[in-house]
C-alpha cells in the first residue's frame, strides 16, 4: 500500500529520513520537489561524499559506504548489487550535476575525497565548492593536458578549503609554473616536484611534506631546517622525498652529506598506520624538540628524510652493528 509521506508531521518525517540509507533517500528525493525541500531541511550534515568523476560515493555516520555509478542500460537503473553499488542515470548525463544534487539532498558540507583527471572537471567543481563553502578533506590531481592547466589548477586549489591532503602528480615540461600553492592542508604530496621551489617550501605550513624528484639543493635544505631549528615551523612533523640536486659539497646543519646515524629508529605515530623507520642523526631546535635527519646520496636521486619526534610517538631504537655509513646506490 502506498504511503502518503507528505501527510506526516514534519518532525516525524525527519525521523523517518534519519533511518534511511543514501540509496533510499536518493530514490525518495526523485518523487517530488516538496520531498526534496523536506529532505534538505531535515538531513544531518555529517555524511561525506567522494567522487572520481566516474562514480559518486557517500560515507555515512557509521562509515558505511554507498556507491552510485552510471547504469549501462536503462533497465539497470536503481538496481543495487551486493557491494552497495546502485546504478543510476546521472542528471543531464553528467557526474558533476548528480554530485551537486546529492550534496543538496544529503545536506553534506564535507567532501571526503575528490580525484581529478580533467581540468574542466576541477573548474566546474571549484565553483560548487566555493559557492557551498565545502570542506574538502582530500584532493588528488593527476596529469593535466599541459603546464598551463596545471598552473590554473593550483590557482583553483588556493580558493578551496582543502584540509587534510593535497596530492599532485603532474610532470611539468618547465620548472616555471606561474601559480603557486598558498593554502596548505595537513599533508602535501607532490610526486614530480621540480617546480616546487624553496620559496614555496619556506611558507608551507603542512605537518607532513613529501616531495619526490625535487630540485632542492644543500643550501635549500639547510635554509629550511635552520628555520625549523629556530622554532618557526611549529606544525612540521615529517618531510621526506628525493632530489637531483643534493651532493656532498656543502653542509646541511653543519654536516656534510651523506648524513646517516648508526641507530635504527622506529617511530609509531598515532595518526599514521605504518611506522617510520629512519637511520637519522639527532638534531634539536630552540623549543627543545628533537628531530632525526637522514640523507643518502645516490647517482640519480638522493633521498632525504626528516622526522620530528612527537611526545605521543612510540619510539624504539636499535643499534645497527653492521653500520658502514650512508648507502651509495
Q: Sheet with the most strands? A: 13 strands, mixed
Order of SSEs = HHHEEEEHEHEHEEHEHEEEEEEE
Report how far the terminal alpha carbons are from each other: 74 Å
Helix/strand-derived category reads alpha/beta
User: Helical content, roughly?
Assistant: 25-40%
How many whole angstroms does the radius of gyration measure? 25 Å
Mean pLDDT: 91
Strand content: 25-35%
Number of helices: 8
Within the largest sheet, what's the order of strands? 4-3-2-1-5-6-7-8-9-10-15-14-13
Number of strand elements: 16
Shape: elongated
Unreliably modeled segments: none
Domain F-box: 2-50
Protein name: F-box domain-containing protein
Pfam families: F-box (PF00646), FBA_2 (PF07735)
Describe the 3D structure.
- It is a single chain.
- By secondary structure, the chain is of the alpha/beta class.
- It has a domain at 1-49 and 64-105.
- It is built from eight helices and 16 strands.
- The strands form two sheets. A 13-stranded mixed beta sheet has the order 4-3-2-1-5-6-7-8-9-10-15-14-13, covered by helices on one side. The chain has a three-stranded antiparallel beta sheet with strand order 12-11-16, with no helix packed on it.
- A hairpin with a 7-residue loop joins strand 11 (263-268) and strand 12 (276-278).
- Helix 5 runs parallel beside helix 6 (147-159).
- The model has no long low-confidence stretch (mean pLDDT 91).
- It comes from Caenorhabditis nigoni.
- Residues 2-50 form the F-box domain.
- It holds the Pfam family FBA_2.
- InterPro entries: F-box_dom, F-box_Sdz-33.
- This is F-box domain-containing protein.
